[in-house]
Amino acid sequence: MTSPIYAFATDVWIAGGAGLLISLVAFGALILAPAVGAFGRTWEKATAVLLSLFILVALLMVGVALGALIVLHWDQITGLVS
């Protein structure tokens, strides 16, 4: 029926891992560091970290959902284009 998750080619795993690493570094440098640096008290910094991580998880869920929709409806999408 479906193949196991480890059946992906090695280059797919490398590209996915590299994309994930670049995204996490960008999130830390462009979102998390300024959010933490904007506050002085420890509880404010902790709150900024938690809220930033909440936003990260929300964005990841939206991205996974959109990606799943694209994969599931790929035949219909290619039918519209051609």
Question: Can you walk me through this structure?
Answer:
This protein is an all-alpha fold. It has one domain. The chain has helices at residues 10-37, 42-72, 74-81. Helix 1 (10-37) packs antiparallel against helix 2. The radius of gyration is 18 Å and the shape is elongated. The two termini are 29 Å apart. The mean pLDDT is 88.
Overall 3D shape: elongated
Oligomer: single chain
Topology pattern, helix = H, strand = E: HHH
- Taking all Cα atoms into account, the compactness measure Rg is 18 Å
How many strands, what sense, and barrel or not for the largest sheet?
Answer: none
Q: Cα distance, first to last residue?
A: 29 Å
Unreliable stretches (pLDDT < 50, length at least 5) are none
DSSP summary, beta strand count: 0
Strand content: under 5%
Number of helical regions:
3
Helix content: over 70%
The total number of structural domains is: 1
Supply the helix-strand structural class.
Answer: mainly alpha
Average pLDDT, all residues: 88
Compact description:
This protein is mainly alpha-helical.
Index terms:
82 residues, mainly alpha, 82% helix, elongated
Describe the protein's topology:
Layout: H1 10-37, H2 42-72, H3 74-81
Helix pairs in contact: 1-2
